[in-house]
Amino acid sequence: MPKTFAIVPAAGTGSRLGGDIPKQYLEIGARSVLECSLAPLLAAAWIDEVIVAVAPGDRRVPERLRASARLRIEPVGGATRRDTVLNALATLSGSDDDWVLVHDAARPGLDGAALERLRAALADSPVGGLLALPVADTLKRAQPGGGAVPTVAATVARDGMWLAQTPQMFRLGLLREALFATPLATDEASALEALGHHPVLVPGSLRNFKVTTSDDLVAMRQLLDKE
Fold first, then answer.
1. pLDDT digits (tens, 9 = 90+) for 97-115
2. How many domains does one find in the chain?
């Protein structure tokens, strides 16, 4: 049976959120954002190993994370997300048919049900796929060079549009090949798409949003404080 690995790139600085602490280490209750993001992965017994890829010299990783038998901290963070994931893939002792999930360190709202939907939907896929949500709101494209006060250039049809989430789950060999070939890829799915593959879209959840701004952090704290 193929093995399943999870990679969590956590080498970013979170500069858009502001402050001196990378956003993955900000607190939500008694845990960090990173710990909350890792929890559902570690709770899924079918994931053989979880690798957290941090920046070299990062000393902020909570010691309690290092105590987990199925979790490995690797100081292999690169200049971009793509570089970090590629470096983490190099630490795996797996075959091309094994599965790799890549999950954002700043998505602490992932729930076990969404994770199980992803696994079930991709069980027979030769490629893989990702959690995503169909776009419900009207989309507007801003005028180029709009400055501080942007204006609308056009309304964009939302039919067939989805918002990508994570985890994104692909065969190890294909993922490595795709990331090597696409240095400008912003996520794993776009790298696979560039090679002509068609990743499966699996319904995610509204709570699985990425913590990018201070408002996001407040909303996530309110959400998880209720649990």
1. 999 999 999 999 999 999 9
2. 1
